[in-house]
Design a protein that fits this description.
It is globular, with a radius of gyration of 18 Å. The two termini are about 20 Å apart. Strand 3, helix 7 (about 150-160) and strand 4 (about 165-170) form a beta-alpha-beta unit. By secondary structure, the protein is α/β, with parallel strands linked by helices. The chain has a single domain (about 45-220), classed as Rossmann fold, CATH 3.40.50.10490. It contains 8 helices and 5 strands; from the N terminus they run H-H-H-E-H-E-H-H-E-H-E-E-H. About 55% of the residues lie in helices and about 10% in strands. The protein has a 5-stranded parallel sheet with strand order 2-1-3-4-5. Helix 3 crosses helix 8 and helix 6 (about 125-130) runs parallel beside helix 7.
Length: about 220
């Protein structure tokens, strides 16, 4: 997998584009685009991020090949990313192929509200992991801060249940490290930028998962 390939601009001269975006610092749209471009360029040069993405891809592929599933959790924008990623895995990313098992634990309003009401909001993911997770499954936790109590509780339960734990966070998210077998850190502490990097890397990972699974199927 080449993460950098997923985040290269189509402009023939990205430096020129960055200059154009910065020409009016009072324009919030241009300013955000410039910050996003700079962060994505940092990500393409981040060897630790690249290595983590490759490792995460490998563990998800291994789990899916073994008949296990991917569970995904997150809050707010990361909750939206969780269901986006699950949809790419269950449906398709780019190619027609068999469905693979992925569940976003952010979408069942009855489960979320019942668990929050009965056990507290910090248990909304842990309770679902306890019920749905099996040894060999992968839990992907998306947390830009790395400090959300419901994310930490979900990861602890996953560890107890024998799941492989994966975290996506930003530069302030080191609190996740002790609970994650694999941790990907986006090179930013700006929440929207971190989420953009997470989704970009997730698309690259989905692409590689799809290709790897299809290569194996073609050999059978």
């Amino acid at each position: 997998m080449h993460v950098s390939a997923a985040i290269i601009t189509t402009d023939a001269n990205p430096q020129r584009w960055g200059c154009l975006l910065n020409k009016d610092s009072k324009d919030p749209i241009a300013a955000h685009m410039a910050r996003s471009l700079a962060a994505l360029e940092r990500a393409t040069q981040d060897s630790k991020l690249d290595a983590a993405a490759r490792e995460i891809t490998a563990v998800i592929v291994a789990a899916l090949r073994a008949g296990n599933k991917l569970l995904i959790i997150g809050n707010g924008g990361s909750a939206a990313d969780a269901q986006h990623i699950a949809a790419e895995i269950v449906g398709r990313y780019k190619r027609d192929r068999p469905a693979y098992a992925a569940i976003a634990l952010t979408t069942d309003t009855s489960a979320l509200t019942a668990i929050a009401n009965d056990y507290g909001f910090e248990q909304v993911f842990a309770r679902q992991v306890a019920g749905l997770g099996r040894p060999g499954d992968v839990l992907l936790a998306l947390s830009t801060s790395g400090r959300s109590t419901n994310i930490l509780a979900g990861l602890r339960t996953a560890r107890e249940r024998g799941l492989v734990t994966v975290g996506f966070t930003g530069t302030n998210g080191e609190a996740l490290r002790d609970l994650c077998d694999h941790l990907l850190i986006a090179p930013s502490d700006d929440t929207p930028i971190v989420q953009q990097i997470h989704l970009t890397v997730s698309h690259a990972i989905c692409d590689e998962i799809e290709q790897a699974m299809m290569r194996e199927a073609a050999l059978k």
